[in-house]
Design a protein that fits this description.
By secondary structure, the protein is mostly helical. It has 5 helices and no strands. Helix 1 (5-19) packs parallel to helix 3 (51-65) and helix 2 packs across helix 3. The chain is globular, with a radius of gyration of 15 Å.
Length: 130
């Protein structure tokens, strides 16, 4: 089912956020379908190897739309993970700290709170970034 660990993690995050009430399953299905269609229109051959990239893009769109975070913050985290992966030897898990997550040495408090709430099983609420 999953080709790489991050695919399982993206799947688990989407399910956990759905179970916490951040979005409905019809909202999820519609957003995922839009992402797949957008990718196909951009030339994705839809061979199955990019499915969880669409899953992740849909998840990012929903958490931004629900106010849990915003697109610039997601982009900063994506860039920080890319930099961390570039500094990490093959086969070693990549990691980064909030200190390295942006040039201004700031993390995303709303993202951390939402992630911790999901792990604890607490309800997820939309909030502004601080």
């Amino acid at each position: 089912m999953f080709r790489e660990p991050w695919e399982a993690q993206a799947f688990a995050m989407a399910v956990a956020l759905f179970e916490r009430g951040l979005f409905t399953w019809p909202e999820w299905a519609a957003t995922l379908a839009e992402e797949i269609k957008r990718a196909q229109l951009a030339g994705d051959p839809d061979l199955g190897d990019t499915y969880y990239r669409h899953w992740l893009n849909a998840l990012e769109r929903l958490v931004a739309a629900k106010g849990v975070t915003d697109a610039p913050t997601l982009a900063r985290y994506r860039d920080a993970w890319d930099r961390a992966a570039g500094r990490t030897a093959h086969g070693v898990p990549s990691s980064f700290t909030p200190k390295t997550s942006s040039s201004r040495n700031e993390g995303c408090p709303a993202c951390r709170r939402a992630w911790l709430a999901a792990l604890r099983g607490d309800p997820i609420t939309a909030e502004t970034n601080d």
